[in-house]
Design brief:
By secondary structure, the chain is α+β, with helices and mostly antiparallel strands. It has helices spanning about 60-75, 105-110, 115-135, 185-190, 195-210, 220-230, 240-250, 260-275, 305-310, 360-395; strands at about 15-20, 20-30, 35-40, 45-50, 80-85, 95, 140, 150, 155, 165, 280, 285, 425, 430-440, 440-450, 455-465, 470-480, 485-495, 500-509.
Length: about 500
């Protein structure tokens, strides 16, 4: 039986059945299509329906086919389960298991950074998923907070649209960057080959966000973010020394210096158990918690259970489906930590002398040269954009673009904050809506109905508030809507996401 509380209402244009699936509600929408909540013979699915005609483009068809192939190949409790697909139907569709629980991005936005037990749980769950992908020689390439769902069984990785097996031909045109800018690795930003180490770096960025509520290399203009990823140290302020040391290893600029997914899994389990050795003072004195003693606030269950119950847990989380590391392997320590008493002596230091330039040094030189080229390219793009804007600005009418015009999205012109949603303005009704947050800002999607007596068009603005404070506005235009009819809308503008109780106001011109 379908769950009536899942998703948002269907619009009049949404399908009610696709293949064997009965569609009940909307879960979200993107550039490739719409994701619906659907059921068939007792199965509950997140049904991705591709927009008609989109698969006529070879690149899009290959991307969709690749996602199906990857999901058929890899299986783990922390990777979403493939159910069925039909690439030849019109529209094409892909059915994945329906996962109840918040997206990591929204959980952090609404409730703040994860506490330490939940953070270690998410780190272990995603490291396990990446170890399964690495064993199958698959790179996800788009690991970000919006692609992780917190469920009762733990964190689950979704969206394999740009995943890339090692033996596959790249689906990306030469010179284009794939993925979301804030969640790229240095090699992606430098247009270099990707591999399992790419996912380790983006895992580090994701975990830094989960611990602080902010991307470690900033947000905003893509050029600035890419330059930060390539050149700057991550922003890890406020993170305790244990997790900071781990994150610095994951966020190493050189892929060869990052740990493997299995090594991250070992360290995450040791961190959850309180047995991960770390330097805790300026003189690097080492303190190690007794084996089996819980970290402060350690808890049990998956992230969803941790976020709800905050229960305590005496020891490491249970073993996952990924083969555990060999028992004889010593407790992992982070690079840079002094040796624990009883550990094998370190190798003698190398004697000083001339150093030959080997393959690894040559590779580093090539990477540095590529970074310089990328920096020059990005600076050139930024200069072109700035010059273009100055030229366009000089040609605009007086007051245009400075917030003085009536159509400006400036929050200074926001109407007074309402005590409840104001969804009607004249003949126009915002019949249903959904607030989503992505890299481009806050997005309002839903259905607008013309309650007038004749066909009409309108410029729509929706003002969004959180706890009585304006977050900005989003806009859209609807044209030739028949009397009494409803049309779907997706509205974007300058509104930004902030936690709090949301209210919206519709304005129609």
């Amino acid at each position: 039986m379908a769950d009536p509380t899942v998703g948002s209402a269907l619009s009049m244009h949404d399908p009610r059945t696709v293949g064997p699936w009965q569609i009940h509600s909307r879960l979200g929408a993107g550039g490739m299509g719409v994701v619906f909540y659907a059921t068939a013979e007792g199965a509950h699915a997140a049904l991705k329906v591709i927009r008609p005609g989109l698969l006529d483009t070879p690149g899009t068809r290959d991307r969709f086919r690749r996602e199906v192939e990857v999901l058929r190949t890899v299986h783990d409790e922390h990777i979403c389960e493939y159910l069925d697909a039909d690439l030849a139907s019109e529209p094409a569709w892909l059915a994945l298991e329906y996962l109840g629980g918040p997206v990591l991005r929204d959980e952090v936005a609404e409730n703040g950074p994860l506490d330490e037990p939940a953070w270690w749980q998410v780190a272990a769950d995603l490291a396990q998923a990446l170890s399964v992908l690495a064993r199958a020689r698959v790179t996800h390439r788009d690991l970000k907070p919006g692609n992780v769902i917190l469920t009762d069984r733990g964190a689950v990785l979704i969206d394999f649209g740009i995943a890339n097996p090692e033996d596959a031909t790249s689906l990306t045109a030469t010179g284009l960057v794939t993925g979301s800018p804030a969640w790229l690795s240095p090699e992606q930003a430098n247009l270099e080959p990707t591999g399992p180490a790419t996912d380790i770096f983006t895992l580090g960025s994701l975990l830094a966000f989960a611990a602080t509520g902010r991307p470690p290399f900033g947000e905003g203009a893509s050029v600035a973010v890419l330059m930060s990823i390539i050149k700057r140290d991550p922003d890890l302020a406020g993170i305790d020394p244990v997790r900071e040391s781990l994150l610095r290893r994951l966020l190493a600029k050189d892929p060869a210096e990052r740990p493997t997914a299995v090594e991250v899994l070992e360290m995450a389990r040791a961190g959850a158990a309180g047995t991960l050795a770390i330097p805790v003072a300026a003189d690097a004195t080492l303190v190690e918690r007794p084996a089996g003693s819980p970290a402060a606030g350690a808890s049990s269950g998956g992230p969803a259970a941790i976020l709800a119950g905050r229960a305590t847990m005496p020891g490491p989380p249970p073993a996952r489906t990924t083969p555990a590391p060999p028992p004889a392997r010593p407790t992992p320590t982070l690079t840079g930590a002094p040796r624990v008493a009883g550990a094998p002596a370190p190798p003698p230091p190398r004697t000083a002398g001339p150093r030959a330039v080997g393959p690894r040094t040559a590779a580093a030189q090539r990477r540095r040269a590529a970074r310089r080229r990328t920096m020059l390219t990005l600076l050139a793009i930024a200069t072109i954009v700035l010059v273009g804007w100055l030229v366009v600005r000089d040609r605009l009418p007086a007051g245009a673009g400075d917030g003085s015009g009536s159509s400006s999205g400036s929050s200074s012109q926001a109407p007074p904050a309402p005590s409840s949603d104001q969804l009607r303005d004249g003949d126009w009704l915002l019949e249903s809506y959904r607030l989503d947050n992505n890299e481009s800002g806050l997005v309002v999607s839903g259905t607008v109905r013309n309650r007038g007596a004749e066909t009409a068009s309108a410029d729509l603005t929706v003002w969004v508030y959180a706890d009585g404070k304006s977050l900005g506005s989003v806009q859209s235009t609807v044209s030739d809507v028949p009397a009494g009819a409803a049309v779907p809308v997706t509205m974007r503008g300058d509104a930004v996401w902030k936690p709090g109780t949301k209210r919206v106001v519709l304005q129609a011109d």
